[in-house]
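To whoever picks this up:

The nightly regression suite flagged Sugar-binding protein as changed. Nothing in the input moved, so I suspect the structure step. Input below, exactly as stored in the fixture:
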Amino acid sequence: MESINGRSTSGQPTGAGPGRSAGGSLSGRAFSRRWVLGAGATTLLTTGLAACGSDDGPGGGGGTIDAFVYGDDAVKVQQTAVERFNKSAASKSAKGTVKLVKIPGADYTSKLRTAMGSPSAPDVLFNWGGGSIRAYQEAKQLIDLTDTIAGDPVLKSGFLPAVLAAGALGGRNYGIPMRGMQPVILFYNKSVFAEHKLQPPTTWAELQDINAKLKKAKITPFALGGADTWTELMWLEYLVDRIGGPEVFAKIQGGDASAWGDPAVLKAAETVKELIDDGAFGSKFSSVSYVNGGAPAVFAKGKAAMHLMGSWEYSTQLGKFPSFAKNNLGWCAFPTVEGGTGDVRNVVGNPTNYWSVNARTGNKDAAIAFLKDCASETYAKALVANGDIPTTSNAAKLLDASPNPEFAKFQYEMVEKAPAFTLSWDQAVDADIATPMLTEINKLFVGKSSPSEFVSALKELK
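Regenerated output under the current build:
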């Protein structure tokens, strides 16, 4: 397996892709998380709205509807679903079929943006939820699916609630989950932990005690690919959640820049600085990259004992260091922080990818009927066979067929039990905020700004 160009699966950073999960193939799945709308997209979309499709909608005469999808190697699951739907009674009842339009990953967002402002707009579109569709939603180009989901037994009970909510905007659903989940997980090296008689931390005090013992043994506590800022972001995402709960970032995601001034954000930044000053990431983390395999190698070779990373770390290690992945890779939840209000069951990361429906579709019935297939056991089995962990409520019984059932079940139960699943910050906010936010995060980690300066800078992002 080759290393990726960034993060992995349903949502990574620039150069990373929407499709890597436990045991899944990596080739062709390397471009997703931050391929989001540019700063001027809202103007473009609003201008193009009047020209979006004919009176019959984007699909033309209302018979065949077009579904734009990210064209990686995971698309075979969606291709099979289309073929199955087109032969089904649901297709006949809705008087419509689906045509899957595969777009190469590197081109997906730009081509979707162009198409949505033209008569050739898709009826159904693949996306990452949150900030990735905000401009379309604000331009009234997407159907609000909230009431449709609530009124349909298949859709209402078909998906894990935390995943449905994570892709929403303003508490309203504009998407149906259609790929696997990718929570951020605290991984640890079982052989290092066993050698030094350590147990996975459940509290921040335990984590600090582990750090002290590891440093005494001249082992770096955490691998960190600081050359790629999104790896640093994960620390702040979990710390803010554990200290202040998911409500803090929910306000920020909703457009309240003043929420960056919440005490939980400052405390999280101060905690990060304490970790850095204490050597928890070593002294050269800012020159280590995840993208080129540096951080995974440091972790697998025992030079660092733990690694906070998305669930795709399993497939990364399986490809690069298969013996380590199979024998010594351990995983656990991010610990609680004393005095914090966040639930230890809360999760951050990339919930999944979503199908959304164009408000101008010529056949809404066919589009909704097609989306319902994503809640089926047949669809979930196809995801499992592809190495993904489905977000459907019926998936638990299917995971024995996964490439690593133990890891698959851990992920699924982690998300199933999560009171909240916070979408990765750089995917949840608009692109014109995500880029400067990442810049400020990097400045905090490399010591170019203090925690208070970090908070002040973020409060200016609007």
